[in-house]
Amino acid sequence: MSPHTDDVALSTTAERAAVVQAAGAQPDKDWVIVTRGLKREYDMGGEIVRALRGVDLAIRRNEYVAIMGPSGSGKSTFMNLIGCLDTPNAGEYWLSGELVSQKNDDELARVRNKEIGFVFQTFNLLPRASALHNVELPLVYAGIGSAERKERAMEALTKVQLDNRATHRPNELSGGQRQRVAIARALVNRPSILLADEPTGNLDSTTSEEIMKVFENLAETGQTVIMVTHEPDIAAHARRVVVLRDGLIASDERKENFTSKLGL
Amino acid sequence: MRITDLLSVAFGEIRANKLRSFFTLLGIIVSVAFLVAVVAIIQGMNAYVKENLAGAIVGTNAFQVRRSPIQIGLYDDEEMKRVARRPRINATDAAAVRLAIPDAQAIGLTTGFPTPRSDIAWRNREVGDILVFGVTPPYQEVQDYRFDAGGPLTETDLEQRRSVVVLGHEVAEKLFESVSPIGQDVRLGSEHFEVIGVVAAKGQVLGQSFDSFALIPFSRYEMLYGRRLTTTISVKMRDAKDVDNAMLRAEEAMRVAHHLRPGQENNFSLETAAALVNFWKQLTAVLFSVIPAVVAIGIVVGGIVIMNIMLMSVSERTREIGIRKAVGARSRDIERQFLAESVALAILGGLLGVVGGWAFAELVASVSPLPARITGWSVILAVTLGATVGVVFGVYPARRAARLDPITALRAE
Ligand SMILES: Nc1ncnc2c1ncn2[C@@H]1O[C@H](COP(=O)(O)OP(=O)(O)OP(=O)(O)O)[C@@H](O)[C@H]1O
Ligand SMILES: [Mg+2]
Fold first, then answer.
1. Is residue A189 part of a domain?
2. Main-chain dihedrals φ then ψ at residue A30, nearest 5 degrees
3. How far apart are CA A190 and CA B271, in angstroms?
4. Would the CB atoms of B327 and A137 count as touching at under 8 Å?
5. Please, which residues have CB within 8 angstroms of residue B9's CB and are 6 or more apart in sequence?
6. How do strand B213-217 and strand B164-167 relate by DSSP bridges?
7. The CATH number of the domain where A149 resides is what?
8. A110, A137, B188, B270: which is deepest, by most CB within 10 A?
9. Is any ligand 1 atom within 6 A of the Cβ of residue A73?
10. Interface of A with B (CB under 8 A)
11. Is A51 touching ligand 1 by the criterion CB < 6 Å?
């Protein structure tokens, strides 16, 4: 994806409301994510836990969105749904104009592979594989040949300044370096959205700043980024902050200082 | 996911868990090794019997007309008695056979059962317990004897009942060592004989030597030991394809000579090297029918071990499965990955088994007279067996792995 910062502006409240309310309608491709009445419930032996109770959200390409909210408000549940790791009990989920909530397992696997880059709090790297091989992994499942894979994985590692650690295994890397490997892996297949669920949750504050810089740079070059965080100063990096509370969106604010930075 | 990637993951896992993989495979390795070793030894013996033993007793492209069949051992009493009632085979029978097969390359007579065992002496040296046969010269042709020294018994020796002897390789070696045996005077019992030839070695089977004999002219033998109970007629054809037809004619001639009516059973035996080999094969067939059962049990147990270890591996690697699924692996990719691993594992076990079995067979061959012969098919069998076991016992764990849903798998410890 080439950067689109010039021709696609941040979404306004009115635009978002319009997209979200047109139930069943296929949104324009520029709306990378549209959820309408998204619900996720867990059956805990008779007792139903309502983790998400109908989330309506629209995110335009190139947006950098922070998702906040108290513990247990459903942030991770929501990220897993839009990351296609989990499926909703009810509601619509459109990703790049495609109705993902109706896809079967194999199609979802393809979406995870091609459209989504996911960065986890716990890194989730293969412990025995080198940094390079970890980054290659999505390309393996994309059926790409070894030579091209290595080249693209190196490219992605270079983007996160880890090309000099390609042969290291995760346990030979610092926490910040591991997370950068995970970011490189998330980016290697050029996904339309980059999702991160508390990516700095396991890192100290200096390292967190480094990682946030990486996300910021990516957002600057036009990568759509959606990130869950507890830290207000980390959320401050984002241009839009969505707050969840009890499985519902409590607020959705656009940060004016960023629009001015973009010259709007 | 490409096949090369599948294999590299599979072998990566096996390499990362060498010791565990080895123990996982022990059942398969031992079973296949056992199969390969036993088959190798039996096949080696088969080949040996065919090439050496059968040839040594009957000769190639040859058959014998005998009073009793060669395959003594697996008879019941009834049959034993029937054989004991058979008339002996004499010069008249031999003449009839000779007449019936004018196209034979050679027809020889040997003095038959019981063959005397005797001591042979030269100067002050003695070799005990050798087989003494009275033969007509063509017998030596039937047997394809090659001579280390001197030459065969001749028709003149036969006609003049000369006291001459042809010795087996082993006898000559023990008796004379470095001295040239030809022309030496040896004693068989109390009789003096002149050595005129030494037959080249034929080797031994199961420790039984075929080179420990002395041949003297048929006529001289009868003077010495009296007329024996029976005579064995050995017929050699120029070509293997003529053997069957010649046997039919010999049978017909013998039936006429023995005045048998149609429907009456033969009261003599026709033996070929093939018959001897068949008898041996019957014996080994019994073994062959027991081995697969033993191996099958080993393989099934080995397969269950593989299944267990794979199930363990799946639960240990649940998080890895989650990670792979999160970055785009389909269920079928995961299933194939684990299946590839169990198949690779089982094939590896099969191959190690072949190597182990081969080594064991070689060891047996080197410390005992049992020969060993590894055949291509045992390798193919081991690999096919391995692959089958890998698939059969790998499917369930692989399915379990594939069924995991990404988010649950990622949450696993
Ligand atoms: N697998 C599950 N089974 C049962 N209940 C679950 C499961 N996952 C989440 N929940 C429940 O759903 C609700 C939302 O959980 P979620 O993990 O989305 O919260 P969160 O906002 O990410 O919290 P945190 O900030 O602590 O990570 C919680 O009440 C949680 O107990
Ligand atoms: Mg969470």
1. yes
2. -70, -20
3. 82
4. yes
5. B337, B340, B341
6. antiparallel
7. 3.40.50.300
8. A137
9. yes
10. 80, 83, 85-86, 105-106, 109-110, 112-114, 118, 120, 124-126, 128, 137-138, 140-143, 145-146, 185, 189
11. yes
Enumerate the residues of chain B whose CB falls inside 8 A of the CB of residue A103.
none
Buried b (16+ CB within 10 A) or exposed e, B316-354: ebbbbbbbbbbbbbbbebbbbbbbbbbbbbbbbbbbbbb
Which tokens belong to B15? 């390499």
Look at the block and give the residue holding tokens 């006609």: B159
Residues contacting residue B223 through CB under 8 Å, at least 6 positions apart: B161
Dihedral of CA B360/B366/B370/B373: which sign?
positive
Contact B27, B296 (CB under 8 A): no
Atom of ligand 1 minimally distant from the CA of A247: 14
Q: Which residues of B touch A105 (CB under 8 A)?
A: 330-331
| Nearest CA residue ID for atom 24, ligand 1 | A71
A48 Cβ inside 6 Å of ligand 1: no
Distance in angstroms (rounded) separating the CA atoms of residues A241 and A232: 10
Return the closest-CA partner of residue B55 out of B245, B205, B247, B246.
B205
**Of the bound ligands, which one is closest to the alpha carbon of residue A67?**
1
Decide whether any atom of ligand 1 lies within 6 Å of the A75 Cβ: yes
pLDDT value for A232? 86
SS3 A228: strand
Q: What is the pLDDT at residue B382? A: 80
Place of tokens 């699924």: B325
Residue A184 is assigned to a structural domain of this protein: yes
The count of domains in chain A is 1
Which residues in chain B touch residue A109, judged by CB atoms under 8 angstroms apart? 325, 328-331, 333
Per-position pLDDT tens, chain B of length 413: 788 888 888 898 888 889 999 999 998 899 889 888 888 887 777 777 666 666 666 667 888 898 887 654 555 677 778 888 888 888 889 999 999 999 999 999 988 666 677 889 898 888 888 888 899 999 999 888 889 899 999 999 999 999 999 999 889 998 998 889 999 999 988 889 999 999 988 765 545 567 888 999 998 988 887 775 678 999 999 888 898 899 999 999 999 999 999 988 899 988 887 766 777 777 777 777 888 888 888 889 999 999 999 999 999 999 999 999 999 999 999 999 999 999 999 999 999 998 998 898 888 888 766 677 777 877 788 888 888 999 999 999 999 999 999 999 998 87
Rounded Cα distance between B74 and B282, Å, is 10
Q: Across all residues in chain A, what is the average pLDDT?
A: 89
Task: Report yes or no for ipTM above 0.85.
Answer: yes
pLDDT-wise least confident of A2-6, A97-101, A184-188 = A2-6
Residue A255's domain comprises 61-87+104-262
Residue A227: its H or E element = strand A224-228
Measure A121 CA to ligand 2 centroid, in angstroms.
9
Q: Give the number of the ligand closest to the Cα of residue B407.
A: 1
Tell me, what's the pLDDT at B1? Answer: 75
